[in-house]
Amino acid sequence: MTDSTLALPVVDAALEARLVDRLARVEELLAGHCQGRTAYVSEAATHLMMAGGRRFRPLLVLLAAETGSHPEAEEVHTAACVVELTHVASLYHDDVMDEAALRRGADTANARWDNHVAILTGDFLFGRSSELTADLGPEAVRIQARTFTRLVEGQILETVPPGPGEDPLAHYLEVVAGKTGSLIATSARYGAMFGGAEPEVVEALSAYGEIVGSAFQLSDDILDVAAESADSGKTPGTDLREGVPTLPVLMARASTDPADARLLELLDADLTDDALHTEALGLLRSHRAMAEARDYVVAQAAEAKAVLAVLPEGSVRRALEDFADVVATRTA
Q: What are the protein's GO molecular function terms (predicted)?
């Protein structure tokens, strides 16, 4: 990758330059779309947007558009804004649900103001996203509505346990697909659509985005356990401490090996206790579930790359393939 500021690995200098320029244009547009009628609303709406982030979703829109005949179209930039506004809006609501105090190194909106302001600011950004989607036409509105439904349903499913007889891992993967995979799939679909790609390419990129988006979240699950220190950008065992079911934990829970009895006991314990948390984290790190989880994500990356076979060989396809590999093996 020649520019570490891009969330996607790009080795072609010309492609990289185009993406950097267009992403800068998207940043300008996003700043404008976050402005309300009063300074108070504008401050709240720009709070998380300007706090940073990888801008992976809008960048994926721009890269997917390169598979079409007019990747520079203004509709592509608009679509990039739609997905990022939707994503950031969801973060405001996430932070309220999680009672989070920090996001991207800054105070969350609910910590800086209160839950009411955070929720309504998220709604404001969803509204802005909807306005822009309407400008893209009825098909874009239909896609966005379906995406939003899946995103919210994923959020809801995350708050409830699996039903009787339901596989906990299958339940969790459905949550991940809804919460994360759906919007990333739409990012790739929008880019290809508004960039003028052929229908089969649009469908392939949408499938790619769904798989890679879910795999990215699953990589986070692995990092939550495997990270040795906050230097990785992760606080080790945060999800474990909070009792959040993640891929390695769910795979470990499926064990019937008597040797895993202590780990299974700890996974049902209150891991806010530092000593129990440390013991559980150590046992989980050395458990075969970690390798199983990594293998699963690597297999997801291979599946994502396979659906790109309809694309011609070249720098765009290579960037997408490389990103799938990065997702599967990342350490931060």
A: transferase activity
pLDDT tens figures, 214-257: 999 999 889 889 877 654 445 678 888 888 889 999 999 999 99
**Tokens coding 227:** 């990270």
Measured CA to CA in angstroms, residue 264 lies from 139, 199, 315 at distances of: 48, 48, 46
Query: Locate tokens 């919210």: which residue?
Result: 152
Q: DSSP assignment of 146-165, as one string?
A: HHHHHHHHHHHHHTSPPPTT
pLDDT in tens, 288-331: 999 999 999 999 999 999 999 999 999 999 999 998 998 888 76
Q: How many CB atoms are closer than 10 A to CB 229? A: 9
**Which tokens belong to 148?**
């939003």
Report the CATH architecture of 198-332. Orthogonal Bundle (1.10)
* Chain centroid to CA 308: 20
**Alpha-carbon span 249 to 269, nearest angstrom:** 13
Domain 1-197 CATH (choose: 3.40.50.2300, 1.10.600.10, 1.20.1740.10, 3.30.360.10): 1.10.600.10
pTM above 0.85, yes or no: yes
